[in-house]
Amino acid sequence: MVETILSYLPKRKKGQQLKICDLTCGGGGHSEAMLMHYVKEGKRNKEEYKEGQAKEGQDSTGEVTVYGVDQDEESGKQTRERLGKFMEGVEGVKFMGINKNFGDLNCQDFQGSQVDFVLGDLGVSSHQIDLPSRGFSYSHELTSSPLDMRMSSSLPLTAADICNEWSEEVIRKVLVELGDEDWRVAGKIAGSIVERRPLKTTGDLVDAINNVVPKWSKKSPRKGALKTTSRAFQALRVAVNDEVGVLERLFEKVLPEITKSGGTVAVLTYQSMEDRVTKQAFTQHYESNGGIRKVRKESIEKDLWGNDVVEGEKVWDVVNRGGEKARKEEVEVNSRARSARLRVAKRGKRLE
Ligand SMILES: C[S@@+](CC[C@H](N)C(=O)[O-])C[C@H]1O[C@@H](n2cnc3c(N)ncnc32)[C@H](O)[C@@H]1O
């Protein structure tokens, strides 16, 4: 959905410093596309400026910085080096890497000011999935990988800790709430995990799941073992990386603070939890002197004319209600895009 994302980028104006933040830089695909977008825009502006056709306030003097954030030290380092080199000597467009959890960002990370555009491409990267040492994959070729699943080595909990130390009931809840698993199936998997302790490798977890889940189901292929395994791995990954807590922190504190009034935030979600948290933040967060709070639609009172009566201002103005899905051609090239949804909102009026 790169083209769609690029269409939301702000235009560079004369003398203006644009700051763009890629919250999930990963292998740098999106960061690189955004850098190239501004390199091309700069060239176009320069030509038009030379030929005296520049539109009001537009020339090539505005500086653009793309900040690429990732909590993964290992893959983040490679990307930072690659994009840093890639941009060497390019006028007017800069790349800066930040190795940090996006739930801990503040304006100091962007040289003390707010940013104009933020992109989040949530979840785990294909590079991380393919690395045997990380334990994200349930592929039969990687069965001896450690049951880790941390996106950063600084995180305190591994998937093995959850499988070997958490109670059966809590593991069942994790599978249901973070993996969208059926309650009955989740109970069987949690029981099998506890019975097979200690689990050390991804193969041990796959075996614990296969032990209780039929390989395929005629009635419902969704319940086949592969889908079940994928949901269980997703649930554990979300728990290990505290993805719900970090997303809530991102929407309640980080994004309202780091995004300029009128600035744009675009979030690509891939699973129901991520999409629910993003949608609720964009539609239900209100800001008053008491800070940011969530106001559920059902609890909003109406005045005589049917207008909502809520104290404070909306933090976000939704730009694409319902979000956007990937086009068929994109899904054909990249199967991950099938479940992607892009939600975009603008930072509302800021309280003084
Ligand atoms: C889906 S990949 C992004 C791929 C990237 N857009 C690209 O074009 O290559 C998600 C990346 O976000 C990172 N990530 C996930 N949660 C994060 C968090 N809370 N803070 C910082 N980085 C995070 C992961 O380490 C991973 O590299």
From TrEMBL:
Residues 46-58 have a biased composition (Basic and acidic residues). GO terms for molecular function: rRNA (cytosine-N4-)-methyltransferase activity. Residues 46-78 are annotated as: Disordered. This is Ribosomal RNA small subunit methyltransferase H. GO terms for biological process: rRNA base methylation. It comes from the Eukaryota. InterPro entries: RsmH, SAM-dep_MeTrfase_MraW_recog, SAM-dependent_MTases_sf. Pfam families: Methyltransf_5. Keywords: Methyltransferase, S-adenosyl-L-methionine, Transferase. Belongs to the methyltransferase superfamily. RsmH family.
